[in-house]
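Hi F.,

I've been meaning to write this up properly since the lab meeting, where we talked about keeping a consistent format for the predictions we share between groups. The idea is simple: the sequence comes first, exactly as it goes in, then the structure tokens exactly as they come out, then a line or two of notes. No screenshots and no reformatting. I'm using this chain as the first example so we have something concrete to point to.
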Amino acid sequence: MKLRGALNWPSEALFAALRIIEAVVVTKLAENFTPFAMNGIIEDSLPAMLPLQGKLCAEHRSWLSAEIAVYYAATRLHWHAKAVNKEAASRRATKNCRKKAKLC
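Output, unedited:
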């Protein structure tokens, strides 16, 4: 559904593809995460984009579906890294507070 040019609700095909990409990302994060995991996420996600490609124009379907998969995976990994860093900073702050409490 579009409203004034902005996408408010994704199509069922897009939502289903993003749900599969999310499952792939969660699986890769549960495994031993390496710097090359992004390649594996994209490779495992692209078959999920096939139903969406059927709804896109022939000229842009492969490019656009790959862009959607890469953008979603990169954004999801960004927020995961942000949460991990926030947790690490919290642990450091707690450790420093405990260290200061022992000195007093």
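Notes:
The helical segments are 12-30, 37-45, 50-53, 61-103.
Residues 2-76 form one domain.

If this format works for you, I'll send the rest the same way.

G.
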